[in-house]
Each structure stands twice: as structure tokens, then as C-alpha cells.
Amino acid sequence: MKALTVLPLTAGSARVEDRPDPVPAAGELLVEAVALGVCGTDREIADGEYGWAPPGADRLVLGHESLGRVRTAPAGSGFAEGDLVAGVVRRPDPVPCGACARGEFDMCRNGKYTERGIKEIDGYASELWTVETAYAVKIDKRLGELGVLMEPASVVAKAWDQIEHVGKRSWFEPQRVLVTGAGPIGMLAALLGVQRGLEVHVLDRVDAGPKPAAVAALGATYHSESAREVGERLRPDIVIEATGVPEVIADALAHNAEYGIVCLTGVSTAGRKIHVDVGGANRDIVLENDVVIGSVNANLKHYADAERALAAADPAWLGSLITRRVQLEDYATALKPEPDDIKVVLTF
Questions:
Q1: How far is CA 86 from CA 70, 131, 143, 151, 251, in A?
Q2: What are the φ/ψ torsions at residue 129 (nearest 5 degrees)?
Q3: For the residues of 259-278, what is the DSSP string, one character each?
Q4: Cβ neighbours for 189, distance < 8 A, ≥ 6 positions apart
Q5: Taking the CB of residue 348, how many other CB atoms lie within 10 A of it?
Q6: With b meaning 16 or more CB within 10 Å and e meaning fewer, what string describes 26-60?
Q7: Reported confidence tier of residue 45, pLDDT bands at 50, 70, 90
Q8: pLDDT beyond 80 at 158
Q9: CATH number of the domain at 154-294, out of 3.40.50.10240, 3.40.50.2300, 3.40.50.150, 3.40.50.720?
């Protein structure tokens, strides 16, 4: 089979290579790849910024946003040949910590978790892959290729779950949400906001192309001004920050409603410095009972939530999020972002 691999911590090492076909162990599915989403994490690993190969191996099979079709399944597993599935990314640490022991491996406390295509387990960027039935998520066949959005949707489902948990510390009836960043995480965050009946606003720097059109088609409002201007005008009850840009983060913290909740999902590049009035920010957060939370990854509950959200969405709108489809052999073009990208997908 063909697989896309990298030598972790080595920029420019990505290549498609031949590997033996995998043999499923007891309790595993054998899956034929259909598509694979490409995100910033994959690009950072390909650029040599991080990544860990499996123990005893030099190279790592890339890819964590999976979609495949079951080729073989164990008897009584609940899966059958032809089922569409996605593989969960994270696995609990072997110790395990208290969170991992309770199925909340997305909240691992000791950092000893592993992740497909990222940390110590080969990913899903191969023509065939295996996955434990306990970490496979069945996808409605009506979604077809759109099921490749499952993993980013699970990340967003977790973010909303965390926001709603925090909001319930007191009376909480939010009306307005601002999503900063119109990439796949931002767009899917907006989708789940619309599905909750909220007034949704999306902020991104571009003022033309597929992003404004997709936001409008969702029934949300698109903005291309600064986060400060939009925040001052809207005073959102909820901000979901999906850019990781320090200036945008600072403005999101400073310009929200009282009892505002800011959920940070974008991962910033270290070393970039801006001036922030920490005293003023602290004063606002304390006096307004604001909350700032970080959210990353997802557990099985969030994958189930994501599957329901995708199944309830307009397929045409979901399809508009996939702005480029690239064959596996042309992986290099997928790893290079383009201005109009929302979601880039490798196809098999």
C-alpha cells in the first residue's frame, strides 16, 4: 500500500512510500481509505516543528482527520463491510491518569497519551489502515465524502460542550456568538452555533472568496474588520477563537459581554510578543465574571455529538467547506496552504 510518511523534527522529509498492507489484530477493523483532511497540525509536523514516530520506528505515517470504508470487521462488533468510519485520534495513556481512566482522554493530565498521526502511533494517511472497534466512529452513509469533516467537528463539539458546562455555573441564556477565524474549525463552530439557535458572527481577514459566501449561506454574518471593532460593536456573549493570532486573542478577551465566555481553540506560535494591559484585562474579567478556557482534542462523546451535527447539516453547505481535493501522490500541494482554502482533502 501507499502511505504518506515523515521523519519527525525534519523539515522537508514528507514522502509517499510503499508499506506492507496492515493485518488487523483481534478487535480491529481493516479500513480502506476514502479521504483524509489536512490541517495546520499536519503542516507543522511536515515542517519539522514536532511529531513523534512510533517506538522503534524512524518515520511516522501522517494524518489524523480520517474517513474510510470498512473492508473487514470482527463478528459482533457492530461494524460491517462497507460501513463508513472515522478513527479517533487520541488514545489514553497506559498509566492511566484519572481523566483517561474515565474516558476523558482529551483531558489527559500527565501528557502520556498517544495520537494517531501525531504522537507515537501511525496515522491514517495510507491506502489501508486498521483501528480498534472501540475507537472507530460509524458515519451516516448519506454524508459520503463529507464524513471527512468528523474530526474537526468533534473538536468543535467539545469546545461547545465546555462552553455550556462553564455557562451553567449561573443563569446562562447567551444570544450572540462571535467566531474568529473562518477555517474549518471556525466554520464548524459557526454551524453548531446556528444549530443552537444563536445569532452567529464570523470574523476573518479576507473580504472575498468562499469564506464570506459560506458564512452567508449558513445564515450567519461575516465580518472582515478588526476583532476590536467587531467586538466593541457586538459585545458577544460567547467568543470561539480559532486563529491563534495574539492580537485577535487580546481583542477577544477585551471586548465581550458581561459574564462572557472566551474559548480558545487556535494554537499560537510561540515567541510572538504584543503589548497587553494585563491589569486592565484582569479587572474586566473579574468585575464581569468572565471566563477564558482552552479546548483541544475530543473524546468519544464529542465524536458522537459531531456525527449528529454533521448529519443534521445541509450537505451542500458542508460540501462548500471542502475547497481543494488533492490526490495522495500530490500531497506537497495539500501541505502548502492557499489564500482561499477552507478545508483541503487528500483523496485515495
A1: 10, 9, 12, 8, 36
A2: -150, 160
A3: T-EEEE-SPPPTT------H
A4: 156, 159, 160, 179, 240, 242, 265
A5: 18
A6: eebbbbebbbbbbbebbbebbbbeebbbeeeeebb
A7: very high
A8: yes
A9: 3.40.50.720
The whole-number average pLDDT for the span 280-300 is: 93
Please name which of 134, 124, 131 lies closest in space to residue 35, comparing C-alpha atoms. Answer: 124
156 membership: H or E segment, kind and range: helix 150-167
Cα(248)–Cα(183) distance, integer angstroms: 15
Which 3 state secondary structure label does DSSP give 134? helix
Query: Other CB atoms closer than 10 Å to residue 281's CB: what's the count?
Result: 15
In the numeric block, the cell 456573549 is attached to 237
Q: Which residues pair with 118 in a beta bridge?
A: none
Question: Structural domain boundaries of the chain?
Answer: 2-139+322-347, 154-294
- Give strand ranges (E) for 229-308: 238-241, 261-264, 291-294
What residues does 199 pair with on adjacent strands?
Answer: 176
CATH assignment of 2-139+322-347, given 3.40.190.10, 3.40.50.1370, 3.40.190.170, 3.90.180.10? 3.90.180.10
Region class of 297: left (phi > 0), else alpha (psi between -120 and 50), else beta: left
> Residue 91 is placed in which grid cell?
488514545
The alpha carbon of residue 6 and the mean position of all alpha carbons in its chain are separated, in whole angstroms, by 21
The span from the CA of 77 to the CA of 83, in Å, is: 12
Distance from first CA to last CA of the chain, Å, rounded?
11
Task: Decide: helix, strand or coil at residue 201.
Answer: strand
Residue 246 burial by Cβ neighbours in a 10 Å radius (0-12, 13-18, 19+):
middle
pLDDT band at 235; cut points 50, 70, 90: very high
Give the integer Cα–Cα distance in Å for 174 and 260: 9
Q: Note the pLDDT tens digit of each residue in 105-153.
A: 999 999 999 999 999 999 999 999 999 999 999 999 999 999 999 999 9
Under the banding of pLDDT at 50, 70 and 90, the label for residue 274 is confident
User: Of 332, 328, 267, 260, which Cα lies nearest the Cα of 296?
Assistant: 267
